[in-house]
Write a structure and sequence with these properties.
The protein is mostly helical. It is built from five helices and two strands.
Length: 97
């Protein structure tokens, strides 16, 4: 996968390239991703998910954080909606030029 990404994209990491992914590295990676974006969109996420970790970093960095309403009976959608208390932005439809 590394080689395919390098052909058409970029690898951004603070870890050695040969380090395998592990549970401890994901929040660090999410911090980098949140800093590279203009905004973060969360559709479904439980309270301890990487999506909410990324959204919290984005919020700390002053980036826009959006929550897309999901199915009312979905636990992940319920937890994602907790973002609206912190950053009340809805993605209603894609922006058209």
């Amino acid at each position: 996968m590394y080689d395919r990404i390098m052909e058409n994209g970029a690898i951004v990491t603070q870890f050695p390239f040969n380090r395998p992914g592990d549970k401890q590295s994901f929040p660090i990676r999410n911090r980098i991703v949140a800093g590279m974006t203009l905004g973060t969109v969360v559709v479904e996420a439980n309270l301890t998910s990487g999506a909410l970790i990324t959204a919290n970093f984005a919020n700390e960095y002053g980036r826009q954080v959006f929550a897309v309403p999901g199915q009312i009976d979905s636990r992940g959608a319920k937890d994602a909606m907790t973002l609206l208390r912190k950053a009340p932005s809805f993605v209603k439809a894609p922006k058209t030029s």
